[in-house]
Amino acid sequence: MSIIDGPLDLTTPGAIIDALVIVNIRMWHAQELIYEEEIFETLSQPQLVDYIRKATQLNLDRNALMDRLDAAVAALFVDKFGEGILQPRADTPIDRTAIWELP
User: Fold this and answer.
1) If 0-12 CB within 10 Å is exposed, 13-18 middle and 19+ buried, where does residue 10 land?
2) For the chain, what is the largest distance between any 2 Cα atoms, rounded to a whole number of angstroms?
3) Quick one: which of 25, 28, 17 has its CA closest to 66?
4) pLDDT tens, position by position, 33-86
5) Of 11, 41, 45, 74, which residue is most buried, by most CB within 10 angstroms?
6) How far are the Cα atoms of 8, 66, 77, 87 from residue 16, in angstroms, in the given order?
7) In this structure, is the dihedral angle defined by the CA atoms of residues 41, 43, 45 and 50, taken in order, positive or negative?
8) Which pLDDT score, from 0 to 100, does residue 92 have?
9) Which of 23, 10, 12 shows the shortest CA–CA distance to 73?
10) Cα(47)–Cα(13) distance, rounded to whole angstroms?
11) What CA–CA distance (Å, rounded) separates 92 from 84?
């Protein structure tokens, strides 16, 4: 299997974590192009469009893997503790302050 373009295993939460790490590595490699000005400036418009499409697809893949991991972990907790585990208690305050709004 090639870490650069091989298929991803999504059969278990551990495999999903591994896939997420691989996609993060793929994103890092794709984004390195931006920092190499000599190469980046020589790209034609079609090459630049292909690069943007690839980087965008990798980001979408990454987001989908994070959602899939969340769902897999939630399912494990529900299997172990029942449906109520995913619901916040009524008396639990929820702080919706964004981190940049903190003093």
Assistant:
1) middle
2) 59
3) 17
4) 878 878 888 889 999 888 888 888 998 999 999 988 888 888 888 888 887 766
5) 74
6) 8, 8, 16, 24
7) negative
8) 61
9) 12
10) 36
11) 14
Q: Tell me the CA distances in angstroms from 49 to 31, 42, 45, 56, one per residue in order.
A: 14, 13, 6, 10
In one-letter notation, the amino acid at residue 81 is F
Q: Which two tokens stand for residue 66?
A: 């994070």
Look at the pTM and tell me if it is higher than 0.70. Answer: no
Map out the domains of the chain as residue ranges. Answer: 13-88
User: Residue 82: left if φ>0, alpha if ψ -120 to 50, beta else—which one?
Assistant: left
**Cα(57)–Cα(23) distance, rounded to whole angstroms?**
10
